[in-house]
Amino acid sequence: MKRNLAYVLLLMLAAVASCSFTNKTFENDDKDKLLLDLITYVLEKGHYEPKALDDDFSVHVFEDFIDVIDPTKRYFIASDIAEFEKYKYQIDDEIKNTDITFFNVVYERLMERMGDAKGIYKEVLETPFDYSENESISIKYDEEPFAADRKELKERWRKQLKYATLGTFDSKISHMENDEIESTDEHDHTAHSLKEAEEESRKSTETTLDEFFDFVSDLERKDWFVQYINTIVDEFDPHTFYFAPEEKEKFDTSMSGKFEGIGARLQKKAEGAKIVEIISGGPVWRDARLEVGDEIIKVGQNGEEPINIVGMRLDDAIKLIKGAQGTIVDLTVKKVDGSLDVVSLTRDVVELEESYAKSANIIKGEEKFGIINLPKFYVDFNDYSERNAATDVAKEVERLKEEGMEGLILDLRDNGGGSLKTVVEMAGLFIKDGPIVQVQSKDKGKDVYDDKDERIQWDGPLVILVNELSASASEILAAAMQDYKRAIVIGSKQTFGKGTVQNVIPLNNMLRSNEHGDLGAIKITTQKFYRINGGSTQLEGVKSDIVVPDRYSYIDLGERDQSNPLGWDKITPADYKAWDGYINYEKTIADSEKRMATSQQIKLIEENAKWLKAEQDETEISLNFDTYKEEKNKDKEQSNYFKKLTDYDSKLTFKSLGYEEQLFTKDSVLREKRNRWHKNLAKDVYVEEAVNVLEDLKMNNIKQGKLASVKN
User: Fold this and answer.
1) pLDDT tens digit string along 366-393?
2) Which domain holds residue 227?
3) How much is the pLDDT for 705?
4) Taking the mean position of all CA atoms in its chain, how far away is CA 669?
């Protein structure tokens, strides 16, 4: 069944938002119970693959909620868990009966245990730490049992606090031994003896914990209940999420608005908040010291003592990190390589101009190629004609053609996706016509979305660059071009693997009357993407034609590393015919693989990737200072060794297009951004290999269709 895409999306949104959910009356004087009733009903009726509310579901909610609120196991003791166990197989029944007894019991005990914890850490920090003692701590908290009693819990706190002070103690000792060392932050590092350094380290840790517990004490019961609701919701899939009223406005306005903050997207991890995306043009991007995979473990405000966010809810951590434009935030970061650093950033409004498509000429000898970088598939949903990724890429293609490009690289690395409509139109720039993607809805047949415009914007050699962070819409485009054999895909072993579609449903829309105010909204998975060859992009993503290692090759990233992802499956293929424009498609891939096998830069990248994996697998940390220093020095030495990766020079020349160079006379910031981009591209072995592939591709003499000007 083939339909007009815009019509289908409108129809589907209308059905989800109204007709599907109007056959039940929701009335409850208790706001929490009403919220639970609404959300579970939406999940049952609207989710693409609803879960059965049974004992297995109950067990997962039980275990995940405990893990979410006490990930480092420093509050509850074994007797608490034993007491909670009686609800382990009852939560599904509670949900069906809009009963929240389990939440109430756990919440009340958590408040009690948090009060106990304040006393415990005060007691522990009264006693000096002996850094000469040979002991260690496991940071693989999920494999640790809960403490048997208060005595064992106190010992667990002692080790965690000793671990927390090690970095501060090391810093003070280093400054004591060498007054010329420059501080990485604005804190007082002065210490005149080992005893004083140890004492001040404990004092610093105590101040941090005091601030953390003051912050937590400001949270209301409703904040914890939202966490419980999202534990239930998260069992359905990692992209289904409940937004409390105050969180709705924060939800993904990135397509056409602005970000305010540091310009990074974060994911909750047991050891802190992990950076999973860096917004081009934002403070993190401009500073260039942080990267995807780094974990923020402490947050300070303009030189004040930082607050430890390990174990803190992600939303609460983000509240600390965000702030008014122009203010300074100090981030203590555990780098991908295991080293610790303090990075101070000035918060700012992140303009999305740097999230738009941009292009450059690549000069190699007498040859000229083009590269287009697309950070996301953006669109203004209020006015599609205003600005969108497909139209912008078409313009860049036309400009590159005018400047004489002989082959095109479309860089989709780190592109997290976006508008499906722009994907279909963009794919149409490179093929005559035909299906681009298949979409399956719950309990319905598939829809096939086609490019119906027979014009071709570019019929020359095409390479698409991807990595593990290329997701959703990026995967659809790469998959379509791969299935048509229109482009050669170069990059990671596979892309992210997000093959699902979500829609946002305001919960107030489901009520005829409401005395409880704004109830928020739920983002729910309603559809699934399939390639035109029938395979889903879910979990498996897109496998590159030419696999090139990168530093994330052995690190768990992507959909498979998320909680409760939907599975991979296959449907019938769409009716399509492979493009026959290349005469040496397979040979080009084979030749590239041979080059990659002998590249010293690729070998160094592979070595770095394996080292990073080994560092992440190291979960037993020594609390002996000499051992700690020895390991830290080894890590620093190894990290410095891999810095030579950035010394690579591809010998390629990158140059802005004519229209952009005219803008530089009035926009020095734009010039700086482009210069930095070009400098990084010149060190990029993946771009270098993409150019080699473009050179190797031999084209048929048969034109695939009339070249268009700019497709609209």
Assistant:
1) 999 999 999 999 887 666 667 889 999 9
2) 51-178+192-235
3) 44
4) 27
Q: What is the pTM of this model?
A: 0.80
In this structure, the answer to whether residues 276 and 340 fall within a common structural domain is yes
**Distance (Å, whole) CA 625 – CA 354:** 44
- Better-scored residue on pLDDT, 272 or 478: 478
Region of poorest pLDDT, from 36-45, 137-146, 186-195, 268-277: 186-195
Domain boundary residue, one of 309, 335, 351: 351
Number of domains observed in the structure of the chain: 3
As a whole number of angstroms, the distance between CA 116 and CA 423 comes to 54
Please check whether residues 279 and 325 belong to one and the same domain: yes
CB-based contacts of 625: which residues, under 8 Å, 6+ apart?
131, 132, 166, 169, 170
Instruction: Show the CA angle centred on residue 543, arms to residues 539 and 545, nearest 5°.
Output: 175
**To which H or E segment does residue 607 belong?**
helix 600-617
Q: Most distant CA pair in the chain: distance in Å?
A: 81
pLDDT at 125 over 50: yes
Q: Are residues 539 and 398 in the same domain?
A: yes
Tell me: the pLDDT tens digits for 656-681?
A: 999 999 988 887 878 988 999 999 99
Q: What is the DSSP string of 613-649?
A: HHHHH--EEE--HHHHHHHHHHHHHHHHHHGGGGG--
Average pLDDT, the chain: 87
pLDDT attached to residue 218? 77
Closest CA to 120 of 144, 152, 88, 145: 152
For 49: left if phi > 0, alpha if psi spans -120 to 50, otherwise beta; the answer is: beta
> d(Cα 148, Cα 131) in Å, to the nearest integer?
26
Kindly state whether residues 566 and 642 are assigned to the same domain.
yes
| Contact criterion met (CB below 8 Å) for 489 and 481 | yes
14 within some domain: no
C-alpha dist (Å) from residue 583 to 478, 586, 642, 698: 20, 9, 39, 6
**What does the pLDDT read at residue 23?**
57
